[in-house]
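[job 4471] stage=fold_predict status=RUNNING
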Amino acid sequence: MGSMRFLLLPLLLILAALPVRAAGIHHDLDVVLDPAARRLEVTDRITVPPGRQRFLLDAGLEVLEAGVPHRRNGEMLTLEVPDGGGPVTVRYAGTLPGFADESAGGPRADEEGALLAGGWLPVQPGTVPTWRLSVRVPAPHVAVATGHLVEEVRDAAGYRAVFAEDRTVEEPSLFAGPWEVRERRHGDLRLRTYFHPEQAGLSDAFLDQTAATIDRFAARIGPYPFDGFAIVSAPLPVGYGFPALTYIGRRVLPLPFVRGQSLDHEILHTWWGNGVRVGDGGNWAEGLTTYMADHAAAGAEGRDAALRLDWLRDYAALPADRDAPLTAFRAKVHDAAQVVGYGKAAFLFHMLRAEIGDAAFDDGLRRFWEAHRFTAAGWSDLQTAFEAASGRSLDPFFRQWLERTGAPELQLVDATATANGVRVSLRQRTPVYALSVPVAVETDGGTERHTVRLDGREVTADLPSAQRVRAVAVDPDADLFRRLAHGEAPPILRDVTLDRGSAVVVAATDAAAEAARALAARLMDGEPRLVTPGRVDPARPLALIGTTAAIEPLLTAFRLGPPPDAVAGRGTARVWTARSPEGRGILVIAADDAESLAALQRPLPHYGRQSWLVFDGGRAVDRGVWPATGSALRRTID
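[job 4471] inference complete, writing structure tokens
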């Protein structure tokens, strides 16, 4: 699930480029919102320092009145604030795009409700405001905002509520919908669900999970930083996180992974990202949240090693020209950024925990929280906290994982039985990393775990065992962030979709061709390179997208063979991957007709880690990853 904090990237890039003004901005907002009419009217009394003050406001909203001289240039609103400062009253209004308008990136509303998150109120560049917000919506809608619920009134005319935030968290986000509201008091906390009527039966399970998750993370990090948490059902197929609130698509809410994993992720963001904001030097919050929530959830089910292997396979599919150091990651603007900013960053915390131990790791988390809550912090602040907790310098560790692109490449040079165990020789390619390499020694009596320190190009270590040694495996549980060895990375969709040099051949005509091109635009992580079969570069990855009848002759032309047994003759659409004799990634999408191709546009981009899938309409009825052919990092001992 994504985070709404980073949805409006162009807006945030503009903010980052503008000079920082004095802090102390406060908004006192009166909002009249009519979702069905798509109408928004706002009176904002802004407490602001004197001088020329620049704000960003969605270009679709018209400034009706301002109490000081002002001018408007697109999204930029400039106020000339007299000596003494605000408050300055600004009235503005507009008719918002509907949810069906997929091109809309700012505030949206229609009979389904309203989503006002970024762009809907004047944002002072470089500052984090405090605020108070009064909102009115007509029946049958209710409204919810981030911040503390001060009061609410329901009557025949509709709903009115007041929300406030007197700490520097972030500007308010506001939502409306025809929801049923369920509440649970958990100590001093107000926990709520804002669900559509058909989802009301899910409320108790979500509230139970929310209470348990808050307690678990509070015990590990420190007190929960807000006075409640809300789960809000969205008309869009999204998953967004806000301070003390998550906004989740109504269609995916009933799916098990939402309550079992995604909810934990969004609750943890109240500490990492909201309670401590991301400062300079890269976004650490997504990696830490992914590690402590998603990875922990996988570990509870015995799937943590499989999840780490997924992250490594994602990285193996990432072209070198799309790699970046962790210090450059700001937000998930495409899948390539997610591979680094979520997967690699989560690996950093996993390796750090192994490096300093569980107790020091948790102590470092608590120190970091206590020192930086409701302020901005960066990777350097995390390093300081973990150094204090572990009592040692971690500068080499953080420098190699934060500042470099790439990953270590390990080789198992030799493994030879000795009288007392086994002698193992490891090597890494340059540039070298300082690594604690897990090595599993498989014996007649079971598997024995060792760690071999590799600080240079090569090391030889004698690993003791009282049992007869059968085999040696280097990093068998994917505990190190590294480039996968030969045989560990079967082809997956991302081998093709992440590479901007991939060629796309559309094998269809008329409406099916249009649907295939639209699918390519959704699936490829960048502008698709559409070519004819005769213009395919054999050195580049290739995607064949079209109808089954038109795909079949291309399978022969490109020497790909028939559809694999896992997908052959099944469903309304079949998706599979392969590798050409030259080693390039191949992706084939063969659907029965135009309608079946169009049905893939929404779901298929979410299955980048899969090797093959079978769809019935828009539903994936079967999927899988081709078996690994065997790792070069495992050696049988004669």
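[job 4471] summary: The chain has five domains: 1-176, 179-269, 277-402, 410-484, 494-624.
[job 4471] exit 0
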